[in-house]
Design a protein that fits this description.
By secondary structure, this protein is an alpha+beta fold. It has a single domain (about 5-120), classed as GMP Synthetase, Chain A, domain 3. About 55% of the residues lie in helices and about 20% in strands. The chain has four helices and three strands. It has helices at about 5-25, 60-70, 75-85, 100-120, and strands at about 35-45, 50-55, 90-95. Strands 1-2-3 form a three-stranded mixed sheet.
Length: about 120
């Protein structure tokens, strides 16, 4: 199975959907921020490993606490994935903090600032 095959794309989408449901509704760990979302999931073609990019709204401490909470709940999350998705192997999940949303907001603010200074120079 190629990395970008249709089957792999479907598996990625299904794992992302179930992972988001489990994090939102099933896990009761207080360290996990309620404003946590699963941005992207990449399951390896052999179904042994999975990278899950997680976006957490809040400061860096909230992000660290959420990742710690998710890592401690990995066994439960894998069990739920195995129960809800019929895969040959249940992948080992590696959680990665996704900074792309924060980066986009920062860049947008910088662009707005440059536009404001250009408008002031013109006037």
């Amino acid at each position: 199975m190629r990395k970008n095959s249709m089957k792999n794309t479907r598996i990625n989408g299904e794992v992302q959907r179930v992972l988001a449901e489990v994090i939102r509704a099933e896990i009761k760990d207080p360290r996990i921020s309620p404003l946590t979302s699963v941005v992207s999931v990449e399951v390896a073609p052999d179904l042994k490993t999975c990278k899950a990019w997680i976006s957490v709204y809040g400061d860096e401490e909230a992000q660290k606490a959420t990742i710690e909470g998710l890592k401690s709940a990995e066994g439960f999350i894998r069990k739920e994935l195995a129960r809800r998705i019929n895969l040959r192997n249940t992948p080992e999940i590696r959680f990665i903090v996704d900074q792309s949303i924060a980066y986009g907001v920062k860049m947008s603010k910088l662009i707005d600032e440059v536009n404001r200074t250009n408008d002031q120079e013109v006037n």
